[in-house]
Backbone:
C-alpha cells in the first residue's frame, strides 16, 4: 500500500478524534476520510458535516465491514476498544485505537493476540502528548549514565480541583465505560516505561471522594473508579517509585517527575515540557537544553500512515506496551482491593 490511497473510517468521534486525528489524517497526502459511525446516527451526521466526511453509518459494524475502508480509527470510550479492534483486524483493517487500551488486562491481551495473528496489519495505540517532546532526551540522558544508578522516582500528576459532589458522573468515573483505568495513570506509566522500564511489584491505596453520583439522565450510580491513588512500586532495575494520581488535590503544583540516582537528579516539568538536572558537585538544578531534532512532539497520524505504507515501525504506542500498562493498571486495582502488595504480570 505504498502508493495507493489509504481510506480511513472513524468509529467514535470524541474530542481527541475531532481535534487531532481527523485534521491530522486529512493533512497527509494520499489519505481519504470516507466514513464515520458515532454513538448515534445524528451525532455521526454532525461530525460528518463539521469534518467533511462523506458517509455516516448507523452501526459501526457496517463501517468495519465496508470494502472501501482500509483503516479504522477508534475514538470510543474504553468499553468498546476490544470488540472494535478484534472486528477490524478480522476484516483486514489497520487499527489506530485511542489510549486507555482496554477495560482490563485480559481485553488488552486479546487485542494483542489478534494483532500478532495479523502481522501485515498495523495496530497502534494513541500515546498521550504530555512527554513526547522530552522523551528522547530523557531516555538518552539515562542511557548515558547522567543519573548513574536510578534509586528512586517521584511522580505526581494532579488532574483537577476541589471536589464537586453535585457534578454528574463522568465517563472516566464509570467503571462500566472505563474499566479499571484510573485518571491519567496509564498514560503516565506508559511514558515512565520508556525511560525506566516496567514495574515488577506495586502497593496501592485509593480514595473515592464521592461514592455515588447521578448520570446525565438522573440515575444514581456507585462510583468505583478512584479519584485519588498513591502507589509504591518496585521497578525492573531495582528503583523504588512513588506515584500519585489525583483529581482532588486542588491547587497542587503542576505534574512533575523526579528521578534520583547515585550520580545525578533529573526533574521533568511536563506542563512546561522542560527538563532540569544536576549532577554530583552541582549546587542546584539547571535547565537541560532539548535539541530541536529531539523535540519530536505529536506525529501519531503520520506514524500510523507511514507504518501502513511500510516506511516506519510504530513506536508510539505498540499494543505490547499497551498490555504492559494494562497489566500495571490491573495490579494497582488488585493491590488496592486486597490491601497488600502484588506482582505485576509480565508480557
Residues:
Amino acid at each position: 500500500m505504498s502508493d495507493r490511497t489509504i481510506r480511513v473510517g472513524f468509529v467514535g468521534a470524541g474530542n481527541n478524534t475531532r481535534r487531532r486525528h481527523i485534521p491530522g489524517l486529512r493533512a497527509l497526502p494520499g489519505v481519504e476520510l470516507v466514513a464515520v459511525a458515532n454513538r448515534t446516527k445524528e451525532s455521526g451526521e454532525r461530525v460528518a458535516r463539521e469534518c467533511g466526511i462523506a458517509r455516516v453509518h448507523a452501526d459501526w459494524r457496517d463501517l468495519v465491514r465496508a470494502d472501501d475502508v482500509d483503516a479504522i480509527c477508534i475514538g470510543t470510550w474504553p468499553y468498546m476498544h476490544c470488540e472494535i479492534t478484534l472486528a477490524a483486524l478480522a476484516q483486514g483493517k489497520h487499527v489506530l485505537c485511542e489510549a486507555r487500551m482496554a477495560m482490563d488486562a485480559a481485553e488488552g491481551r486479546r487485542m494483542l493476540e489478534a494483532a500478532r495473528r495479523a502481522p501485515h496489519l498495523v495496530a497502534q495505540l494513541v500515546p498521550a502528548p504530555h512527554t513526547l517532546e522530552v522523551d528522547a532526551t530523557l531516555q538518552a540522558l539515562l542511557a548515558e549514565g547522567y543519573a548513574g544508578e536510578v534509586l528512586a522516582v517521584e511522580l505526581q500528576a494532579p488532574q483537577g480541583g476541589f471536589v464537586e459532589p453535585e457534578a454528574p458522573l463522568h465517563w472516566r468515573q464509570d467503571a462500566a465505560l472505563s474499566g479499571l483505568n484510573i485518571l491519567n495513570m496509564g498514560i503516565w506509566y506508559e511514558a515512565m516505561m520508556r525511560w525506566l522500564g516496567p514495574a515488577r511489584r506495586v502497593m496501592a491505596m485509593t480514595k473515592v471522594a464521592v461514592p455515588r453520583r447521578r448520570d446525565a439522565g438522573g440515575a444514581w450510580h456507585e462510583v468505583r473508579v478512584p479519584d485519588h491513588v498513591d502507589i509504591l512500586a518496585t521497578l525492573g532495575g531495582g528503583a523504588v517509585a512513588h506515584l500519585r494520581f489525583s483529581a482532588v488535590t486542588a491547587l497542587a503544583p503542576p505534574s512533575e517527575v523526579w528521578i534520583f540516582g547515585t550520580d545525578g537528579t533529573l526533574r521533568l516539568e511536563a506542563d512546561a515540557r522542560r527538563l532540569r538536572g544536576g549532577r554530583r558537585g552541582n549546587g542546584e538544578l539547571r535547565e537541560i537544553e532539548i535539541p530541536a531534532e529531539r523535540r519530536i512532539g505529536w506525529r501519531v497520524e503520520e506514524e500510523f500512515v507511514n507504518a501502513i505504507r511500510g516506511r516506519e515501525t510504530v513506536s508510539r504506542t505498540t499494543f505490547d506496551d499497551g498490555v504492559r500498562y494494562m497489566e500495571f493498571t490491573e495490579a494497582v486495582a488488585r493491590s488496592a482491593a486486597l490491601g497488600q502488595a502484588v506482582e505485576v504480570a509480565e508480557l
Residues 6-126+299-312 form a domain with the Rossmann fold fold (CATH 3.40.50.720). The longest helix spans residues 319-338. The chain has a mean pLDDT of 96.
